[in-house]
Protein: Tyrosinase
Organism: Apiospora saccharicola
Amino acid sequence: MPAEFQVLQDRYHDQILGLLGTEGCTKDNIAKRRSWDDLDDETRKDYIRAVHCLANKPALTDMSLAPGAVNRLDDFTYIHINQTNIIHQSGYLLPWHRLFLWQLEEALRNECGYRDYLPYWDNARFSADQTKSRVWDGNAETSFGGNGLPRVPGGGNDDPNSTRQLFLPGLAIDFWLSMPLGTGGGCVTTGPFTNLTLTLGPVAKPARDPNNKYGYLPTPRCLSRSFDPSYTGGASLTWANATSIVSANDIAAFRAGIEQLWHRQSHTFIGGDGADPFSPTNDPVFYLLHAQIDRLWAIWQGQDLQSRTYAIAGNRTFFGIPLEDAPNVPPSLATIEDTMEMGLGFRPLTKEGMPTTELGRCYVYM
């Protein structure tokens, strides 16, 4: 870790731990979220076991809303699909995903007996080659597996740096997302999620799909990935960019840095199911990816907890674009008093998703 980033992280730790009292969230009971690469093999295996445990538990989502929701992991995918056009490129990106991660962590621990806490994908540490992280350690049972099979055996049939256009439904205007083809595109055949069956999504597709617009109907398939080679050479997910993001002077600049330098790039590197803006939760590594984003936000907040904990900036919808079912509603700014939809009846105020040591949450990133 470069000295410049270490200084920022140390101040964050000093600020968080220095304000803890003797009741509620304390130095003795605060959870420590750590890099996947810093966990021991026993903890990694326990995490993967707990993910499979959720995949084997029945969904709680109303089947009339999402017939393709089969298991507890699908509950999370359904609500992410449902809220995608509100929680991305908006003021809700950070607080919504913070609570979303916490919900998954609670499910792993309380429903499946996971003994540790949510880890993060420490991608800045591996900016020269992301595949060197233990996250992607090929056949290892302590990893999330590797790339998907190439589109054509022997290397693929397209330049991996070329792109395809994907349609994003639900907005009042047509919106197409450019996505690199990457180096895979097929099923993941290594690691502990080789036999994971997905049923919800995909949603972002090369053409409109009026019959399964949001991917709620069952579409059984394997987990796919397509690593983007442009992110294995230090192009974006670097210590320099992480330091720049966390050094932002205000929340608008911080969120702009996350959006422009980190969020989409992390998903794009993974490709496949993990790069669909609506259903990236189908890839279990999603939660490590967003834990890293949550970590960067926590470190930024920790430079001045008093003024930054409840800072917010951004619209109430994706880029401020009206939603398809409310085309005449003008853009408006998100506030900390707004209600967020988290699924299964959980509707917290935005401000409830902002601190990490209050309101039932008690964790620090190491």
Observations:
- The first strand starts at residue 31 and ends at 33.
